[in-house]
Amino acid sequence: MTEHAQSVVIEASHPCFPGHFPDNPLLPGALLLLRLQRLVERHMPPWQLVQVKSAKFLAPVRPGDTLDVRWQAEEVQAQLRLRLQAFVDGRQVCQASLLLERAQ
User: Fold this and answer.
1) Residue 67 belongs to domain with CATH number
2) DSSP assignment, residue 19?
3) Number of separate domains in the chain
4) Catalytic residue from among 4, 14, 20, 43
5) Which residues are CB-contacts of 62 (< 8 A; sequence separation ≥ 6)?
6) Are 93 and 61 contacting, i.e. CB atoms less than 8 angstroms apart?
7) Predicted pLDDT at 33
8) Is this prediction's pTM over 0.85?
9) pLDDT tens, position by position, 56-101
10) How many CA atoms lie within 13 A of 31 on its CB side?
11) What does the DSSP 8-state code read for residue 72?
């Protein structure tokens, strides 16, 4: 099993924030997962996401937050299983289990 870590900043200027929610902006869970998918795929070629097996959103992600993302990867047969956690200022905001396959 290999371990990886990477940080990513959530841009305060992202267009989702004014409408989600106007007086209390937070990053929607679907966009958080998309951001995590892009991060993992960029650092783990030639693997690509094929399934989100589970995802839990434990705390809000706000404009300008820096996500500290950690994941463990285990290759099983022709697939890569990831256990992923994301933190903001040491507070866990997300945990997910992902399944990846080699890109064609």
Assistant:
1) 3.10.129.10
2) G
3) 1
4) 20
5) 10, 25, 26, 27, 88
6) yes
7) 95
8) yes
9) 999 999 999 999 999 999 998 889 999 999 999 999 999 999 999 9
10) 14
11) E
Q: Is 20 a catalytic residue?
A: yes
49: nearest Cα among 6, 10, 7, 82: 82
Answer whether 50's CB lies under 8 Å from 100's CB. yes
CA distances 15 to 5, 21, 42, 51, Å, are 27, 11, 23, 26
Neighbours of 22 (CB within 10 A): 8
- Range of the structural domain that residue 92 is part of: 2-102
pLDDT computed for residue 25 by the predictor: 96
What integer pLDDT is reported at residue 6 of this predicted model? 96
Q: Residue for token digits 């070629």?
A: 45
Question: What pLDDT is attached to residue 104?
Answer: 78
**pLDDT at residue 77 in the model:** 87
For residues 17 and 78, what is the distance between their CA atoms, to the nearest angstrom?
A: 38
Q: What confidence score (pLDDT) does residue 48 get?
A: 93
Contacts of 90 (CB under 8 A, 6+ apart): none
